[in-house]
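> example.struct
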């Protein structure tokens, strides 16, 4: 399904006219020394008529099995259809996680309409990655993307691994608090040049949430080359750096070899 025009305008405004190919993505990974990357599907059909199918992501992973890890996406507004599709994507397409975009499905993370999907993810043993914080989808609403909503989900599903994407900016203090108090909550630093990430986030990464931080770029918003180069200039102990780069992800995403 094609990207809605209003959404495309937002991406072009930020990324420019030429969105990258899979070849561009792999080249960026190679230049940055990144071995594997997560690629995500998008299901926002009920509100935005927008979908990047699980099948397409699965095909991309099958064509590049040593480089990509697939995360499925479903739209909880579809009810049981979403639950069935998540199970199919994991059991048949070997997806390793679930990506949800609350601002595009217009459901807060703690909306009870989401809970059937969480129950299925828990049964399947996969983590749930939420877009949190600001974004560039013209016409969408920030109120659906506050990290505090994840706290309630974490309490109600203590055995379900949850990831707050983009460290929840501008609510990064809120995101750190949610990750700190809930053993099952993690966060990534994708979507920001590390040199522009607030010092508060790195201070927490060096301290109480050092086992919760995950590397990400949100390429092409930030190239992996730039992200890795800037991270090398930021002081952090070796164990924190290793956790950020790969060890924490191995704890969150199961079934990787």
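> example.seq
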């Amino acid at each position: 399904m094609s990207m809605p025009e209003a959404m495309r305008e937002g991406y072009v405004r930020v990324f420019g006219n030429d969105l990258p190919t899979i070849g561009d993505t792999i080249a960026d990974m190679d230049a940055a020394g990144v071995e594997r990357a997560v690629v995500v599907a998008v299901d926002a059909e009920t509100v935005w008529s927008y979908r990047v199918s699980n099948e397409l992501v699965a095909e991309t992973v099958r064509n590049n099995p040593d480089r990509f890890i697939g995360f499925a996406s479903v739209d909880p507004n579809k009810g049981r259809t979403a639950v069935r599709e998540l199970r199919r994507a994991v059991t048949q397409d070997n997806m390793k996680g679930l990506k949800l975009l609350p601002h595009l499905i217009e459901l807060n993370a703690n909306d009870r309409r989401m809970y059937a999907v969480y129950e299925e993810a828990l049964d399947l043993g996969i983590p749930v990655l939420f877009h949190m914080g600001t974004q560039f989808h013209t016409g969408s609403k920030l109120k659906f993307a506050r990290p505090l909503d994840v706290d309630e989900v974490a309490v109600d599903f203590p055995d379900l691994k949850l990831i707050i994407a983009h460290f929840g900016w501008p609510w990064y203090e809120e995101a750190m608090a949610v990750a700190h108090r809930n053993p099952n909550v993690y966060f990534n630093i994708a979507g920001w040049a590390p040199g522009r990430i607030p010092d508060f986030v790195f201070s927490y990464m060096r301290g109480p949430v050092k086992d919760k931080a995950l590397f990400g770029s949100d390429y092409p918003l930030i190239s992996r080359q730039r992200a890795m180069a800037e991270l090398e200039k930021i002081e952090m102990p070796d164990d924190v750096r290793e956790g950020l780069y790969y060890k924490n992800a191995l704890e969150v995403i199961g079934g990787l070899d």
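> remarks
The first strand starts at residue 37 and ends at 40.
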